[in-house]
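Quick one, probably user error.
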């Protein structure tokens, strides 16, 4: 697996949205954060000690994966059972895809009811809701600056 294959796979999962945040990190969300979506995976494009990818694992899988070479607690996210991988060879591509599907499903089940309801909307209605929520958030942020 590599960055492009991981990105293609993640974007093919239902309701996945990608953002670029915190420097050179591709962050993958179940649902847009404007409707209450939550992160489930992060691809680190920096060449640093934080690994190439981190994702939600849940308590049971987290403990199991920590016993394997190439897996370690995700920086800043270990307290909520996120795992990181040192390099793209830490797991076979098919296994990594299974782990990412699990991360997506785990986070999807924990979405607030309002976000799940929004994801069930028709695509055009959902896009309009996201635009409205983003505009409201920007207006609120602008009013705080005054």
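Nope, works fine. Designed sequence:
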């Amino acid at each position: 697996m590599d960055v492009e294959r991981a990105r293609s796979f993640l974007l093919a999962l239902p309701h996945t949205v990608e953002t670029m945040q915190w420097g050179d990190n591709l962050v993958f969300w179940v649902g847009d954060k404007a409707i209450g979506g939550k992160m489930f995976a992060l691809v680190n494009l920096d060449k640093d000690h934080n690994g190439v990818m981190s994702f939600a694992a849940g308590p049971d899988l987290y403990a199991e994966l920590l016993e394997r070479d190439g897996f370690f607690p995700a920086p800043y996210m270990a307290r909520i059972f996120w795992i990181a991988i040192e390099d793209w060879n830490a797991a076979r591509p098919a296994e990594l895809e299974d782990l990412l599907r699990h991360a997506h499903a785990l986070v999807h089940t924990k979405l607030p009811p309002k976000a799940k309801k929004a994801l069930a909307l028709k695509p055009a209605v959902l896009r309009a809701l996201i635009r409205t929520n983003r505009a409201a958030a920007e207006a609120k942020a602008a009013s705080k600056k005054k």
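The radius of gyration is 16 Å.
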